[in-house]
Amino acid sequence: MADDESGLRSLSAASLIRLPAHGKDQSARLIIGADKGADALAAAARVAERLAEFQPVARLLSPLSTDVAVITLPGFGFSHDLAAVFDFAEALSRATGVAMIEPEFAYAPNIDEETKPGAAIPEGAFAVPGCWVGEDPALDGDTAWAPAMIRAPQAWAFSKDGGRPAAGKGVIIAHLDTGLTDHPELAGATLLSGLDLIDGDAMPQDPLDPSSGNPGHGTSTASVIVSQAKGKVTGSAPAASLLPVRCISSVIVVFASRIAEAIDHAVARGAHVITMSLGGLSSFSLERALARAVAADVIVLAAAGNCVKVVVYPAADPNCIAIGGVNAKSEPWRGSCRGPEVDICAPAENVFRAKAEPGGSGGSSQGEGTSYAVALMAGATACWLAHHGRARAIAAARSKGLSLQELFRRAVRDTARQPADWDAMLFGAGILNMEALLRLDLDAMPTREGGAGVSSAPTGEGRVRNLLLSLAEEPSEALAAAQIHAVQTEIIAQVMLRRTGDAQRTASRRLTEAISAEGVAALSLSACSSDAPAAPSLKPLALSADTRADAMLRHLRKRLVAKVAGLEAAELENVPDDAPLPPFEDALAAFDPANVDAFIARFPKGEVACPDDIKRALGIIWRQAKPAYGKLNSPGGISQASAGDKAALEAVVNFDGSSPSLLLRQSQVDIAHPLAGAWAESLFLANSGLLRDVAPAIGRIQRLDGGPAAFFGTGSLVAGAKKGDPPLVLTNFHVLQQILRSPGVQYRLSGSRMAIYGGPGLDFDGEIDSPVRVTHKIAAARLPKGCGQTAGAIDAVALEIAPVDRSKPELPTPIQLSSDVALAGNTAAKLIVIGFPADPKSSSGVVDGVDWNWISSVLFGRRFGLKRAAPGLVRTAVSGLGADWHESVFAHDASTLGGSSGSIVFGLATGTRGMGLHFAGLTGQRNEAHAFGTIADALSGVGICIA
Predict the structure, then answer these.
(1) What's the whole-model pTM score?
(2) Where's the Peptidase S8/S53 domain (predicted)?
(3) Which active-site residues does the annotation give?
(4) Which domains does the chain have, with CATH numbers?
């Protein structure tokens, strides 16, 4: 005991410093965590007892956070000797038996020596050379340029013209900042009573203290959200209600636990949106508060940060939408933080905002910083919720198996405007487009999902691993395998504080033990890289007006007519829209209960998991499809079809032989399969040529220990551009993104090439009767010019691979890609997609009490993640999808499902050359693919042969 006490005293002496009288707001804080259901306050009391000489004050974080307590040491602050501080926390943990004790730093970067105390400084509050731009006199005549750039006026008009609540009316935005002051630019705005967590009262008044670093910051950002445009400032949601919470005295002195407390307060007060124009370090208290907010259907936004390059917290947390910045020319603002966490950008340079200063006139001026970008985004979020209705948006999210936060993240990416030469690796999907965001139909959003058993959202640990990589001079497999869970906070602190030249380069004992000697050496001796490694940002394509479910039903109607009439699939275009439908019993004979036993008997061995389940599934389709079929056959009936009708008819298409997805065995399909339908003859010909030649080169991208239940997508071995070049694996850009977000994967970007460490492998067998056999792993990625996931981007990437061991396994023959654009320009041309469809968990979901996901799973024999071939037709030729679409895209109707991302599309009549790359789909309506002929230059630029 005496030794423990002596050790604590020694460590406390090295880690705690007495603060000057004016530094009380920076008092040291220890965050105490408890497992769910445990008493965090009791644990905090044990810790406080050991710190009695510092007169500690212990309390619960908030009424919503009973598993987190905070101990404050008034008048004492932590030194910047990170090793000593974290060793002190670990010693406290050993002495008290409290496992989770986290020291919390106020993130306070050094102010440039040219910036004197009390001087006016930019929004980020510290003058980093080369970061700030300064005011632009050319913009003085257009004070509303920022809301105009994001098409805010058009968004308001669209809502108003449609009879919807406009400009954010009825939506509550919690504004976590330095508080507010009276200002003419806020006159007429709806300001709710708030909370001051600094002074502990209900008056979130900004004292405009010149020593705070950025007085009036909260007033400035609030004006960008809710200003009524009566002065010079126009907010992006002037009809929204603002709930101010003063939780920081300066944007550069940020306690994560206080932000967490503010988030909890916002949730408890019924906020719909939380906006945070601030940034600093992370804490498990902040992580938990963000997760609680998202679970409560609150949309959480934060500024990516300024000048330090790496995205700061809370924006870097997976449960937060991170907003970067651009200028009036649609170029990235040079001070914007960048990297894998950035979802989208909005104006951040020379944005007009209210100016509140001590003794100021209450005027306005240009401001810089991602604080203004996230403020504009907060208004856009309020407009989106008001337009659609929050309850309806939540219902749409639930139907897709998403949180409201994730639905909005996808929607805002889906509709971003991407300028030419936009770097999606660093700045997300593009620039906010409020009008397009509101016009996007929540029920008509395409998906670009990967496989199964891997998260589609970034993980906190994955992001921290890449921060660790940014500290290393050379990445290594040792760093990729490090057990970092217990030391994540220290890694974040090391990175953030080093980037401002504000910390010693030593690691605590626990961090030292967590990684290998090689990793410690890299961490201890290297300087931070100037740019954090970056990953792409998920971005589905926008939809044109003719992609709604009605178009799907009209197409289905034609297929049913053609099927009963014995027409070839390619003859669909000759079927009139008003051709009479055959009797229901003829069109859906396979689902007739009288025929079920014969139908099941035709399935190949091993594809029937449970005959009784198949009978039940077919019976449900029969009952549900009958009334839906009647609507197809009545005037105006298509427009009256319910969600349940559409789900039933979608199931008909998947399982009546119109759009089969058939398992491969030794690169062949069973043409006698009951789902082969009218495709049997075409598949017979494919067996003897195309499938035999190309299927072996198509692999499942999976973790090294993964398989059909845990994989990322599909990758195809393709020929190199020059003779003698090694083959590459072609897949989607968004599949790479999912790989980079996977725990344990690290990467380093250099130009258009990204080295990958701890990455997944490929199983080129992947058939129903094949054992899992991973022979190669992904070593690097090559990024084609223009790659990304917006309507103007190419969703493709080339992967370099290496053997997983020294056995030098033989690779299959690479696939040749065709530059003939005409292959994808012939509507109704037959095609086939070969890939690894995953369990359709986000298909039609549960509709009117029917679980259509279960039905799909049963009729696929619960055999997912295995190599399949899916024939179909070109639905819309290249360049025929409307102005919102990339000129390389064509639409097809093959049954792909999630996991087929990255699959090559082959023409059934054109031999073994690939015609396109599948990348997205809209359930029951259509799938999208890039025609190789139109993106040949981009692919050739990364070493892929286009013949």
Answers:
(1) 0.72
(2) 168-390
(3) 177, 217, 371
(4) 2-104 (3.30.70), 175-439 (3.40.50.200), 460-525 (no CATH), 540-947 (2.40.10.120)
